[in-house]
Amino acid sequence: MSMPDKLSTYRAKRDFKQTAEPKGSRSSRSRKSDIAPRLRFVIQKHAATRLHYDLRLELDGVFKSWAVTRGPSLDPADKRLAVEVEDHPLEYGDFEGTIPKGQYGGGTVQLWDRGYWSPLPGVDPKQALKSGELKFTLEGERLHGSWVLVRMRHDRTNSKRTNWL
Ligand code: MN
User: Fold this and answer.
1) Which of 17, 49, 73, 156 lies in the 20 to 30 Å Cα band around 98?
2) DSSP secondary-structure letter at 83?
């Protein structure tokens, strides 16, 4: 597994002597079973410089992650900006706490929802993320239903961030 590579950005941004966030050293769980394991999701309310909600979807041993400006939308017409951020370790799905001021993401992280997610039937999630549109369902404690992540074209934003809606 290329775990160290996937999490190198995550680790480079953090000083683990200063923050209690998980380093992500635990190896990902074995996938030898022929029954497909369920994929976890978590939404963390993050009171950083700006309050946002971090949506994390388990895929390939890490959490693919987006910072959603005003939290998940329950109204299909009300789209939310979701800024793609670095992959996070699966241990992050249980993390709550205060990241010290001055550290990356300084502020308080609270679990807001968690459960399982799945791509819509027939959707290959890796392919969907690559092509910029992922339709999925969430089965959490708060959230139940279908959402879609759509990548915005870079030329509209003129920024290095990868934005999704
Ligand atoms: Mn965050």
Assistant:
1) 73
2) E
